[in-house]
Design goal:
Structural class: alpha+beta
Protein backbone atom coordinates (compact mmCIF):
# COMPACT_ATOMS: atom_id res chain seq x y z
CA UNK A 1 0.00 0.00 0.00
CA UNK A 2 2.81 2.47 0.80
CA UNK A 3 4.36 1.92 -2.63
CA UNK A 4 1.00 2.72 -4.22
CA UNK A 5 0.61 5.89 -2.18
CA UNK A 6 4.09 7.07 -3.17
CA UNK A 7 3.40 6.37 -6.85
CA UNK A 8 0.00 8.07 -6.74
CA UNK A 9 1.51 11.03 -4.94
CA UNK A 10 4.13 11.39 -7.63
CA UNK A 11 1.54 11.20 -10.36
CA UNK A 12 -0.47 13.87 -8.62
CA UNK A 13 2.32 16.32 -9.31
CA UNK A 14 2.44 15.53 -13.06
CA UNK A 15 1.60 18.42 -15.38
CA UNK A 16 -1.71 18.40 -17.22
CA UNK A 17 0.01 17.65 -20.49
CA UNK A 18 1.73 14.51 -19.12
CA UNK A 19 2.96 11.98 -21.71
CA UNK A 20 1.48 8.60 -22.59
CA UNK A 21 3.86 6.70 -20.29
CA UNK A 22 2.70 8.74 -17.31
CA UNK A 23 -0.94 8.13 -18.21
CA UNK A 24 -0.30 4.39 -18.41
CA UNK A 25 1.49 4.45 -15.06
CA UNK A 26 -1.43 6.34 -13.53
CA UNK A 27 -3.93 3.79 -14.82
CA UNK A 28 -1.80 0.90 -13.54
CA UNK A 29 -1.57 2.56 -10.13
CA UNK A 30 -5.36 2.80 -10.06
CA UNK A 31 -5.64 -0.89 -10.96
CA UNK A 32 -3.23 -1.88 -8.20
CA UNK A 33 -5.06 0.27 -5.66
CA UNK A 34 -8.42 -1.20 -6.69
CA UNK A 35 -7.07 -4.74 -6.30
CA UNK A 36 -5.62 -3.87 -2.88
CA UNK A 37 -9.08 -2.64 -1.82
CA UNK A 38 -10.75 -5.86 -2.98
CA UNK A 39 -12.28 -4.40 -6.15
CA UNK A 40 -12.61 -6.31 -9.43
CA UNK A 41 -11.52 -4.13 -12.36
CA UNK A 42 -13.96 -4.46 -15.28
CA UNK A 43 -12.81 -1.59 -17.49
CA UNK A 44 -9.69 0.58 -17.78
CA UNK A 45 -8.80 2.98 -20.56
CA UNK A 46 -7.01 6.22 -21.39
CA UNK A 47 -7.14 8.57 -24.35
CA UNK A 48 -4.48 10.44 -26.23
CA UNK A 49 -5.40 13.43 -24.11
CA UNK A 50 -5.01 13.41 -20.32
CA UNK A 51 -8.22 11.54 -19.60
CA UNK A 52 -8.12 8.12 -17.99
CA UNK A 53 -10.97 6.02 -16.67
CA UNK A 54 -11.29 2.92 -14.53
CA UNK A 55 -14.42 0.99 -13.55
CA UNK A 56 -14.38 -1.63 -10.81
CA UNK A 57 -16.90 -3.55 -8.75
CA UNK A 58 -17.36 -4.91 -5.27
CA UNK A 59 -20.49 -7.03 -5.37
CA UNK A 60 -23.38 -4.66 -6.08
CA UNK A 61 -21.19 -1.56 -5.73
CA UNK A 62 -19.67 0.03 -8.84
CA UNK A 63 -16.78 2.49 -8.56
CA UNK A 64 -15.65 4.72 -11.42
CA UNK A 65 -12.45 6.78 -11.28
CA UNK A 66 -11.72 9.27 -14.04
CA UNK A 67 -9.31 12.14 -14.56
CA UNK A 68 -10.79 15.55 -15.30
CA UNK A 69 -9.56 18.93 -16.40
CA UNK A 70 -10.56 21.76 -14.08
CA UNK A 71 -9.86 25.48 -13.91
CA UNK A 72 -7.13 24.87 -11.34
CA UNK A 73 -5.63 21.97 -13.30
CA UNK A 74 -5.81 18.19 -13.10
CA UNK A 75 -8.06 16.34 -10.67
CA UNK A 76 -9.92 13.08 -10.19
CA UNK A 77 -13.62 12.39 -10.03
CA UNK A 78 -14.76 9.27 -8.18
CA UNK A 79 -18.32 7.96 -8.40
CA UNK A 80 -19.67 5.04 -6.39
CA UNK A 81 -23.15 3.70 -7.12
CA UNK A 82 -24.93 1.16 -5.00
CA UNK A 83 -28.42 -0.37 -5.12
CA UNK A 84 -30.94 0.81 -2.60
CA UNK A 85 -34.63 -0.07 -2.40
CA UNK A 86 -36.95 2.83 -3.29
CA UNK A 87 -38.25 4.79 -0.35
CA UNK A 88 -36.77 6.89 2.42
CA UNK A 89 -33.11 6.52 1.40
CA UNK A 90 -33.72 8.09 -2.01
CA UNK A 91 -34.45 11.44 -0.33
CA UNK A 92 -31.16 11.58 1.61
CA UNK A 93 -28.59 14.18 0.54
CA UNK A 94 -25.31 14.90 2.31
CA UNK A 95 -22.87 17.59 1.15
CA UNK A 96 -20.21 19.89 2.46
CA UNK A 97 -21.51 22.82 4.49
CA UNK A 98 -22.55 25.82 2.45
CA UNK A 99 -23.94 23.82 -0.47
CA UNK A 100 -27.43 25.27 -0.11
CA UNK A 101 -29.13 22.26 1.45
CA UNK A 102 -31.42 22.58 4.44
CA UNK A 103 -29.25 22.21 7.52
CA UNK A 104 -30.80 19.32 9.41
CA UNK A 105 -28.78 18.99 12.61
CA UNK A 106 -28.21 15.50 14.00
CA UNK A 107 -26.70 16.45 17.37
CA UNK A 108 -22.98 15.98 16.63
CA UNK A 109 -21.48 19.48 16.77
CA UNK A 110 -18.44 18.73 14.57
CA UNK A 111 -20.49 16.89 11.95
CA UNK A 112 -23.19 19.58 11.94
CA UNK A 113 -20.52 22.26 11.34
CA UNK A 114 -19.04 20.39 8.38
CA UNK A 115 -22.08 18.96 6.56
CA UNK A 116 -25.44 20.01 5.18
CA UNK A 117 -28.02 17.23 5.33
CA UNK A 118 -31.46 16.84 3.79
CA UNK A 119 -34.06 14.08 3.68
CA UNK A 120 -36.09 11.79 5.91
CA UNK A 121 -35.16 12.61 9.51
CA UNK A 122 -35.64 9.04 10.69
CA UNK A 123 -33.49 7.58 7.87
CA UNK A 124 -30.76 10.18 8.41
CA UNK A 125 -30.74 9.51 12.15
CA UNK A 126 -30.57 5.76 11.53
CA UNK A 127 -27.76 5.97 8.93
CA UNK A 128 -25.49 8.55 10.53
CA UNK A 129 -24.22 6.56 13.48
CA UNK A 130 -20.78 7.12 15.00
CA UNK A 131 -18.87 5.05 12.41
CA UNK A 132 -20.65 6.59 9.40
CA UNK A 133 -19.91 10.09 10.71
CA UNK A 134 -16.24 9.18 11.27
CA UNK A 135 -15.92 7.94 7.69
CA UNK A 136 -17.69 10.97 6.23
CA UNK A 137 -15.50 13.38 8.19
CA UNK A 138 -12.41 11.49 7.01
CA UNK A 139 -13.46 11.79 3.36
CA UNK A 140 -14.50 15.42 3.78
CA UNK A 141 -11.01 16.30 5.03
CA UNK A 142 -9.46 15.58 1.62
CA UNK A 143 -12.24 15.79 -0.97
CA UNK A 144 -15.38 17.55 -2.13
CA UNK A 145 -18.05 15.04 -1.16
CA UNK A 146 -21.68 14.65 -2.16
CA UNK A 147 -24.13 11.82 -1.46
CA UNK A 148 -27.48 11.86 -3.22
CA UNK A 149 -29.82 8.91 -3.51
CA UNK A 150 -27.76 5.86 -4.43
CA UNK A 151 -24.65 7.74 -5.56
CA UNK A 152 -21.57 8.94 -3.71
CA UNK A 153 -19.47 11.46 -5.63
CA UNK A 154 -16.22 13.16 -4.78
CA UNK A 155 -13.54 15.26 -6.46
CA UNK A 156 -9.98 14.70 -5.29
CA UNK A 157 -6.41 14.17 -6.49
CA UNK A 158 -4.10 11.23 -7.18
CA UNK A 159 -2.22 12.18 -4.04
CA UNK A 160 -5.32 11.64 -1.87
CA UNK A 161 -6.91 8.73 -3.74
CA UNK A 162 -4.97 6.07 -1.84
CA UNK A 163 -6.35 7.36 1.47
CA UNK A 164 -9.87 8.03 0.23
CA UNK A 165 -10.79 4.89 -1.70
CA UNK A 166 -10.86 2.60 1.38
CA UNK A 167 -13.04 5.16 3.22
CA UNK A 168 -15.31 5.45 0.21
CA UNK A 169 -15.76 1.70 0.00
CA UNK A 170 -16.42 1.42 3.73
CA UNK A 171 -19.18 4.03 3.38
CA UNK A 172 -20.82 2.35 0.39
CA UNK A 173 -20.73 -1.03 2.17
CA UNK A 174 -22.44 0.50 5.20
CA UNK A 175 -25.07 2.15 3.03
CA UNK A 176 -25.87 -1.10 1.21
CA UNK A 177 -26.57 -2.98 4.45
CA UNK A 178 -30.26 -3.68 5.17
CA UNK A 179 -31.57 -1.05 7.59
CA UNK A 180 -34.09 -1.83 10.32
CA UNK A 181 -34.85 1.79 11.13
CA UNK A 182 -36.35 1.19 14.58
CA UNK A 183 -33.51 -1.10 15.61
CA UNK A 184 -30.88 1.37 14.39
CA UNK A 185 -32.58 4.33 16.10
CA UNK A 186 -32.82 2.37 19.34
CA UNK A 187 -29.15 1.39 19.18
CA UNK A 188 -28.03 4.95 18.44
CA UNK A 189 -30.23 6.34 21.24
CA UNK A 190 -28.52 4.02 23.71
CA UNK A 191 -24.93 3.82 22.49
CA UNK A 192 -23.87 6.93 20.56
CA UNK A 193 -21.16 8.88 22.43
CA UNK A 194 -22.73 12.25 21.48
CA UNK A 195 -25.62 13.19 23.78
CA UNK A 196 -27.17 15.30 21.04
CA UNK A 197 -27.23 12.32 18.68
CA UNK A 198 -28.74 10.08 21.37
CA UNK A 199 -31.48 12.65 21.92
CA UNK A 200 -32.08 13.08 18.17
CA UNK A 201 -32.59 9.32 17.77
CA UNK A 202 -34.77 9.07 20.88
CA UNK A 203 -37.05 11.85 19.67
CA UNK A 204 -37.35 10.11 16.28
CA UNK A 205 -38.50 6.94 18.06
CA UNK A 206 -41.03 8.85 20.18
CA UNK A 207 -42.38 10.76 17.19
CA UNK A 208 -42.47 8.07 14.51
CA UNK A 209 -42.68 4.73 16.36
CA UNK A 210 -44.51 5.38 19.66
CA UNK A 211 -46.19 1.98 19.77
CA UNK A 212 -43.17 -0.18 18.99
CA UNK A 213 -41.99 -2.33 21.95
CA UNK A 214 -38.40 -1.37 21.13
CA UNK A 215 -39.30 2.28 21.63
CA UNK A 216 -40.67 1.52 25.10
CA UNK A 217 -37.56 -0.48 25.97
CA UNK A 218 -35.30 2.35 24.78
CA UNK A 219 -37.27 4.94 26.75
CA UNK A 220 -36.85 2.93 29.93
CA UNK A 221 -33.12 2.64 29.34
CA UNK A 222 -32.89 6.38 28.57
CA UNK A 223 -34.20 7.19 32.07
CA UNK A 224 -30.66 6.35 33.25
CA UNK A 225 -28.85 8.35 30.54
CA UNK A 226 -26.06 10.69 31.75
CA UNK A 227 -27.78 13.61 30.00
CA UNK A 228 -30.53 15.35 32.05
CA UNK A 229 -32.28 16.42 28.86
CA UNK A 230 -32.52 12.83 27.64
CA UNK A 231 -33.78 11.59 31.01
CA UNK A 232 -36.42 14.33 30.92
CA UNK A 233 -37.69 13.38 27.45
CA UNK A 234 -37.78 9.69 28.31
CA UNK A 235 -39.59 10.17 31.62
CA UNK A 236 -42.07 12.58 30.07
CA UNK A 237 -42.89 10.06 27.33
CA UNK A 238 -43.34 7.26 29.89
CA UNK A 239 -45.78 9.31 31.95
CA UNK A 240 -46.84 7.92 35.31
CA UNK A 241 -44.43 4.98 35.03
CA UNK A 242 -41.35 7.16 35.65
CA UNK A 243 -42.64 10.16 37.59
CA UNK A 244 -39.76 9.54 39.98
CA UNK A 245 -37.28 10.63 37.29
CA UNK A 246 -39.09 13.95 36.91
CA UNK A 247 -39.05 14.55 40.67
CA UNK A 248 -35.32 13.78 40.76
CA UNK A 249 -34.65 16.17 37.85
CA UNK A 250 -36.69 18.94 39.47
CA UNK A 251 -34.78 18.70 42.75
CA UNK A 252 -31.26 17.84 41.53
CA UNK A 253 -30.77 21.16 39.71
CA UNK A 254 -28.22 19.48 37.47
CA UNK A 255 -29.38 21.42 34.42
CA UNK A 256 -31.44 24.61 34.45
CA UNK A 257 -33.63 23.85 31.42
CA UNK A 258 -34.32 20.24 32.48
CA UNK A 259 -35.13 21.19 36.09
CA UNK A 260 -37.39 24.03 34.96
CA UNK A 261 -39.37 21.79 32.63
CA UNK A 262 -39.65 19.07 35.27
CA UNK A 263 -41.00 21.64 37.77
CA UNK A 264 -43.52 22.85 35.20
CA UNK A 265 -44.71 19.30 34.50
CA UNK A 266 -45.00 18.49 38.22
CA UNK A 267 -46.37 21.87 39.34
CA UNK A 268 -49.58 20.45 40.75
CA UNK A 269 -47.83 17.53 42.47
CA UNK A 270 -45.03 19.36 44.28
CA UNK A 271 -45.98 20.53 47.79
CA UNK A 272 -45.32 24.13 48.73
CA UNK A 273 -42.31 23.35 50.92
CA UNK A 274 -40.61 21.27 48.21
CA UNK A 275 -41.19 24.02 45.65
CA UNK A 276 -39.80 26.60 48.09
CA UNK A 277 -36.69 24.44 48.65
CA UNK A 278 -36.14 24.07 44.89
CA UNK A 279 -36.63 27.82 44.46
CA UNK A 280 -34.06 28.62 47.15
CA UNK A 281 -31.48 26.30 45.56
CA UNK A 282 -32.20 27.56 42.04
CA UNK A 283 -31.75 31.12 43.25
CA UNK A 284 -28.40 30.24 44.85
CA UNK A 285 -27.23 28.54 41.64
CA UNK A 286 -28.58 31.39 39.48
CA UNK A 287 -30.82 29.09 37.43
CA UNK A 288 -33.34 31.66 36.09
CA UNK A 289 -35.50 29.17 34.18
CA UNK A 290 -36.03 27.05 37.28
CA UNK A 291 -36.64 30.12 39.45
CA UNK A 292 -39.40 31.28 37.13
CA UNK A 293 -40.91 27.79 36.85
CA UNK A 294 -41.06 27.61 40.67
CA UNK A 295 -42.65 31.06 40.92
CA UNK A 296 -45.25 30.06 38.35
CA UNK A 297 -46.03 26.86 40.27
CA UNK A 298 -46.21 28.70 43.61
CA UNK A 299 -48.45 31.33 42.08
CA UNK A 300 -50.87 28.65 40.95
CA UNK A 301 -51.04 27.43 44.56
CA UNK A 302 -51.87 30.98 45.83
CA UNK A 303 -48.60 31.23 47.87
CA UNK A 304 -50.52 31.74 51.09
CA UNK A 305 -47.81 30.40 53.42
CA UNK A 306 -45.29 33.07 52.42
CA UNK A 307 -44.23 36.08 50.46
CA UNK A 308 -41.62 35.70 47.75
CA UNK A 309 -40.19 37.90 45.03
CA UNK A 310 -37.26 37.93 42.70
CA UNK A 311 -35.48 41.02 43.90
CA UNK A 312 -33.32 41.87 40.89
CA UNK A 313 -33.40 41.55 37.09
CA UNK A 314 -30.69 38.90 37.43
CA UNK A 315 -33.33 36.50 38.79
CA UNK A 316 -30.82 35.24 41.27
CA UNK A 317 -32.04 36.67 44.59
CA UNK A 318 -35.18 36.19 46.68
CA UNK A 319 -36.79 38.72 48.99
CA UNK A 320 -40.03 39.29 50.86
CA UNK A 321 -42.92 40.76 48.92
CA UNK A 322 -44.76 43.73 50.48
CA UNK A 323 -48.05 41.87 50.90
CA UNK A 324 -48.39 38.42 52.43
CA UNK A 325 -49.40 35.66 50.09
CA UNK A 326 -47.98 37.26 46.94
CA UNK A 327 -45.24 36.30 44.49
CA UNK A 328 -43.66 39.00 42.40
CA UNK A 329 -41.09 39.15 39.62
CA UNK A 330 -38.76 42.01 38.73
CA UNK A 331 -40.19 45.08 36.93
CA UNK A 332 -41.26 44.16 33.44
CA UNK A 333 -41.81 40.47 34.29
CA UNK A 334 -45.25 38.91 34.54
CA UNK A 335 -46.69 38.93 38.06
CA UNK A 336 -48.06 35.72 39.53
Amino acid sequence: MWELLILLGGLGGTLVGGNLVVRRERLQAWKNLAATCGLEVVKASHSKLIYSQLEARDGPVTVRIESTSRTQGYSLRVLATFPRPPGLFSSVKIRRKGSGLHDLEIGDELFDRRFSVEGSTQMIAALLDEEARRLLLGVNFEAELEISGAELRLVTSDRSLGNLLPLLLALTRRFTEPVDIVQRLARNARQDPAAGVRLHNLLALIRDFPGDPRTLETLRAACSDPSPGIRLRAARALGAERRDVLFALAESLEDDAASAEAVSILAGELPFERLRAILDQASDKRFPQTVHACLEALGEKGAAPGQLSVASPDAGQLSLAPDAGQLSLPPGERQV
